[in-house]
Design goal:
6 helices; mainly alpha
Length: 114
């Protein structure tokens, strides 16, 4: 029973800590990355994200123009946009869910280590 409480707490604490972010807007490059990028509305951009960088994909180019290679970020961004649109609250909520899952997974891993 104690292990389950640790797992639950590890998931709930990040969720509670980051809850206020659902009321925040976008900041700095978030507008380019999460609202105005043409690649967000195209699920076909997900595979391209594995062969180029964020800047090239967001600007519509086919070549790597920087060292900002983040294929999982690009895939999740496109999926979030298709599911939730361009509003910041849903993006922040999705990040909270990921933080909660990571907390629970990390806790489970350490509990198994003993």
């Amino acid at each position: 029973m104690g292990r389950r409480w640790f797992l639950l707490a590890a998931a709930i604490v990040p969720f509670l800590l980051y809850w206020p972010t659902t009321g925040y807007g976008f900041l700095l490059d978030d507008f380019v990355l999460f609202q105005s990028s043409p690649s967000l509305s195209d699920l076909g951009s997900i595979p391209r994200g594995f062969v180029t960088d964020v800047g090239a994909l967001r600007k519509g180019g086919d070549t790597v123009i920087s060292s900002y290679y983040r294929p999982v970020f690009l895939a999740l961004s496109t999926i979030y946009y298709k599911l939730f649109g361009g509003g910041p609250a849903a993006w922040h909520a999705a990040s909270m869910v990921i933080a909660a899952l990571i907390g629970a997974l990390a806790c489970g891993f350490f509990l198994r280590l003993g």
